[in-house]
């Protein structure tokens, strides 16, 4: 009797194994990361974070057919998931005026997957 391989089961197995490995490594690590919790990004000018911010503007401009220009990231948080979520407040230029936008990006670098999952105008209080 031949066993048939279902790609969905294979993906599920990889996700479960990744989560289990993550938690087993976190037990020995002195700086424990909470899986799923949002953590502040301390270096908003880190090239990787800036790359994510520019990705946000490029993707939004493609989707909404706008011409927003990335200026800077003024606030950011990251979340450890399968990959990483970034929640960024980005300052961008729209013609001659500056606006802030809140964006969420899911990044899975080892698969070369990056997706803008949320984008909205944001009023800084």
Automatic annotation (TrEMBL):
Annotated SUPFAM superfamilies: Cystatin/monellin
CDD domains: CY (cd00042)
Residues forming coiled coils: none
Signal peptide: 1-26
GO molecular function, one term: cysteine-type endopeptidase inhibitor activity
Domain Cystatin residues, every copy: 33-122
InterPro entries: Cystatin_dom, Cystatin_sf
Keywords: Protease inhibitor, Signal, Thiol protease inhibitor
UniProt name for this protein: Cysteine proteinase inhibitor 5
Lineage of source species: Eukaryota, Viridiplantae, Streptophyta, Embryophyta, Tracheophyta
């Amino acid at each position: 009797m031949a066993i048939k391989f279902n790609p969905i089961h294979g993906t599920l197995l990889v996700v479960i194994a990744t989560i289990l490995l993550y938690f087993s490594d976190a037990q020995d690590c002195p700086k424990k990361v909470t899986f799923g919790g949002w953590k502040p990004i301390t270096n908003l000018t880190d090239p990787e974070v800036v790359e994510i911010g520019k990705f946000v503007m490029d993707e939004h401009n493609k989707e909404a057919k706008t011409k927003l220009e990335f200026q800077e990231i003024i606030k950011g948080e990251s979340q450890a998931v399968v990959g990483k979520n970034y929640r960024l407040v980005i300052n961008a230029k729209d013609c001659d005026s500056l606006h802030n936008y809140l964006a969420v990006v899911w990044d899975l670098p080892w698969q070369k997957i990056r997706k803008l999952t949320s984008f909205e105008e944001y009023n800084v209080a």
